[in-house]
Each structure stands twice: as structure tokens, then as C-alpha cells.
Amino acid sequence: MTAPVVVKRPALFLVPLAVGAVVAVALGVYGNTHHPTGHALFFRPFPSMFAMKVWLTAGAVVLAFVQLLSALRMWGKIGRGPAPAWIGPLHRTSGIIAFLLTLPVAFHCLWSIGFMTLDARVIAHCVLGCVFYGAFVTKILTLHSKRLPGWALPWAGGFLFTALVGVGFTSAGWYLATIGIPG
User: Fold this and answer.
1) Is residue 84 part of a domain?
2) CB neighbours of 157 closer than 8 A, spacing ≥ 6?
3) DSSP 3-state of 166
4) Can you tell me the distance from the alpha carbon of 76 to that of 91, in angstroms, rounded to the nearest whole number?
5) With contact defined as beta carbons under 8 Å apart, do 119 and 170 qualify?
6) Number of neighbours of residue 146 by Cβ within 10 angstroms
7) H or E stretch at 45
8) Is residue 154 part of a domain?
9) Are 36 and 112 in contact (CB under 8 A)?
10) How far lies 42's CA from each of 53, 104, 108, 143, in Å?
11) CA–CA separation, 7 vs 3, rounded Å?
12) Could you tell me the residue range of the domain that residue 136 belongs to?
């Protein structure tokens, strides 16, 4: 017996995109309507909430580049021959850790600070933060679907990478460049 043929349906990619968009919009609405507390619930072992946010975001961005390079290797876009067996576990582990590093940052952004519209950088940061979590949902839903075309997963992963790097450069990158290393 042969395995059944799975028909790839590009239009089905609209489903994870729509779910991700709902997540992004919901976070933006919450961040905009929630009255920010103005204080952190936790930030130890860091000296301040902003130090925690800068260092965890910087760590997540570094791991995003590990994600990019390991994905390119897995897909055969860099390197020669088949990818080593450790590339897949590295990709999954770095992705999990990067995502976990973003959670306390996002929680404090939404709970303590809220969706702010002070200037273009802050607006871009807030929008990209919401888009990042929507892109994460889109990638996870795309990853587990066997009915989507082969281009859907790299597209979703690339969008997720771009959103995280954008969030990182509009926050931790800006902080490190203009204010300096948090003490």
C-alpha cells in the first residue's frame, strides 16, 4: 500500500495568517485599552525593569540570528551537503529559548507601559511587538500543517525573524545606542 497523497493548498495559508492577525490585533487592543501600572511586577536578577527588557530582548535577537542561520542550513541555502544532525535540535532549542526570553519583556510592555504613541520609533516598536506574537502563532500553525505548500514555512519564519529583529532594534538596540548599557 502507498501512503495517501496530501494535496497542498496555498489558500489554506490564509488560516494561520488570519489567526496570527487576530492575535496581533488583540494584543494591540489590550495594550491600548489597558491602563498601564507604571511599575514592574518583577525584574530580578536585573537592576531594573528596563535592564531586564534590554538584556532579554538582546538575547532573543541573538538567538533569532541563530534561528536564521540554522534554518538556512536545514533548507540547504548555506553549507555543502546534508545538514548535520544537530542543526534541527539547535534550531528548535534556540527558537524556544528566544520565545521564552520575550515573554517577560512583552508582559512588562503590555502591563506596565502599554501601547504608546510618543514618536515613530515607539509606535513601530509597539506595532512590531504585537506583530511578533501574531507571526509566532502563524509560524507554529504553519509548521504543523502538512497541507500547506513548501514556501509557507520559510515565509512565516522569515516574517517572524523580521518582526523580532525589528522589535529588538526599536527597543534594546535603540536603548544601547542612545542611553548605553543598563547598570
Assistant:
1) yes
2) 67, 71, 139
3) helix
4) 14
5) no
6) 7
7) none
8) yes
9) yes
10) 11, 9, 9, 33
11) 12
12) 46-178
Can you tell me whether residue 41 is helix, strand or coil? coil
pLDDT tens for the 183 residues of the chain, in order: 676 667 788 899 999 999 999 999 999 999 999 888 887 887 788 888 889 999 999 999 999 999 999 999 999 999 999 999 999 999 999 999 999 999 999 999 999 888 888 899 999 999 999 999 999 999 999 998 889 999 999 999 999 999 999 999 999 999 999 999 987
Residue owning grid cell 520575550: 102
Alpha-carbon distance 3 to 169, whole Å?
A: 46
117 closest CA partner among 109, 127, 107, 108: 127
Helix axes 152-170, 49-74, angle to 10 degrees: 150
End-to-end CA distance of the chain: 65
- CA nearest to 165, candidates 58, 72, 78: 58
Q: How many domains does the chain have?
A: 1
Residue identified by cell 494584543 is 27
Give dist(CA 146, CA 143) in Å, integer: 8
Residue 92 belongs to a domain: yes
Matching residue, cell 496581533: 24
Q: What cell does 66 get? A: 541563530
Residue owning grid cell 501601547: 115
